[in-house]
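Ticket 4471: requesting a sanity check on a complex prediction with copper (II) ion. Repro inputs:
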Amino acid sequence: MTPRIALALIAALAAPASAQITRHGSITAAGAWSRATSSRASIGAGYVTVRNTGAQADRLVSATSPRAAKVEIHTMSLDDGIMRMRPLPNGLEVPAGGEALLAPGGNHIMLIGLKSPLKAGERVPATLRFARAGDVRIQFKVVGAGSTVAGVRQGGHQ
Ligand SMILES: [Cu+2]
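Returned structure tokens:
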């Protein structure tokens, strides 16, 4: 891959994440985004990068959104060649001075029981609850369903 193509790819990957940054205490949530859902979908996934500038580890323990009946913190793993997702019972650690990446193919925020489809261009509010930093409000910027940021198909849940 030439450097020029690599740069273009990085730009494409970063595009939906260019949006906004929310800071609360030592926790920063940046580039929250989600993919538009079909009219019949009852679930959606949210992605965000969480940074911890504090001296102690923090933990994303739960999340809520007015747009979903329930919100879970999920991880993804390969199970017999099929990507499956499951809730993280103890949430997700954000190491001191480090970050937790919630991205396609890996950890993500699962919006369950969508009250209405996620539409491209809108911003879906959510609150991330951290063990130390408390509540951090974010907005998932919804991008078109066709913009496959990482080309990951989601398994499980069906
Ligand atoms: Cu999930």
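Notes from triage: The radius of gyration is 15 Å. Leaving this open until the requester confirms.
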